[in-house]
Design goal:
Layout: H1 2-25, H2 35-38, E1 41-44, E2 47-50, E3 55-61, E4 64-69, H3 75-84, E5 91-93, E6 98-101, H4 107-144, H5 150-183
Helix pairs in contact: 1-4, 1-5, 4-5
Length: 185
């Protein structure tokens, strides 16, 4: 029973880390990365559609992205979505593709991005702690109902704490990597 609770908690914690990775990939650094715009939603026939389903995204140079729509009639709506996003980039449209040039980040903008990233890291830590709390409550419930012994509860709590510590450290590691990437000039 405790094993089931721990397995469930671990898979939910892994999910929280996965969401964090996707979030961090979307935060702009000095380098061009398709992850920057892949999840950008474009209004396509009245439906918000991720850009990666409408176009191929390439990195021809370290500081530029090329977005080539599969259907050339979507080029204007893709351009509009980029302009209305919070990326702060101006698209250049040559009729066949959209080119995005990433200007170097200012020191102030880097600090803002790091602050934003720390907010995302805290959200992930809170998610992991909430998962721990839920699993802990389930264990206590089992103990109250005499489905597990007090010793099993203690061991389960220790294992749950180790699991939580492991994922909190994983979040910190992701944060350190991304911060170094953002601050790199």
């Amino acid at each position: 029973m405790i094993k089931d609770i721990l397995n469930d908690a671990e898979s939910r914690m892994r999910g929280a880390i996965s969401v964090l990775r996707d979030d961090l990939a979307g935060i702009r650094t000095g380098r061009a990365s398709p992850a920057l715009v892949e999840r950008l939603h474009v209004e396509y026939y009245g439906t918000p559609t991720p850009l990666q389903q409408l176009a191929s995204i390439n990195v021809p140079e370290p500081r530029s992205l090329m977005i080539k729509p599969f259907d050339s009639s979507t080029i204007k709506i893709i351009e509009k979505a980029i302009l209305s996003s919070d990326l702060g980039l101006t698209p250049n449209n040559d009729g066949k593709a959209i080119h995005l040039n990433l200007p170097p980040l200012t020191e102030e903008r880097r600090r803002e991005l790091v602050k934003h990233m720390h907010h995302r890291l805290e959200e992930a830590r809170v998610a992991v702690r909430n998962i721990r709390r839920d699993a802990h409550n389930d264990m206590r419930e089992f103990e109250k109902e005499k489905l597990i012994s007090e010793d099993e509860l203690k061991r389960g709590e220790e294992d749950l704490q180790k699991l939580t510590d492991k994922y909190i450290e994983e979040i910190a590691e992701q944060g350190r990597k991304k911060e170094a990437e953002i601050m790199e000039v």
